[in-house]
Design a protein that fits this description.
The chain is α/β, with parallel strands linked by helices. It has one domain: Rossmann fold. Helix content is 34%, strand content 20%. A five-stranded mixed sheet has the order 1-2-4-3-5, sandwiched between helices. Helix 3 crosses helix 4. The longest helix is centred in the last third of the chain and has 15 residues. The chain is globular and about 35 Å long. The termini are far apart.
Length: 123
Amino acid sequence: MASLTTAIRFCTAEDQTRIAYASTGQGPAIVRAAHWLTHLDFDLHSPVWGPWISSLSRAHTLLRYDGRGCGLSDAVSTPLTLDAWVSDLEAVVDAAGLPRFALLGCSQGAAISIAYAAATRSG
């Protein structure tokens, strides 16, 4: 995983929570919705997530972000809600300037992805 280079950037969600995000690879974009316990730096070296990141980055631009309260994103003292998580995803996509992308939702990221897609389609 050390061969993957990633520049970590920050954006701000609707409620002013600072969200860390990074991209690896080149090609059509895939956005991985945040899921339980992410860390942009440590995930690259994780025996679970490292191979996924490496594989998906071979032919795609993989955009990942740390959910609020995880990794390099701001800690929060307010309750975590689906609406807040969807707002985080929206902030990251907007900051990255992605007009079109595939959305990957693992674990709690599945609910975030579905809610985001439903809101985007109807909005």
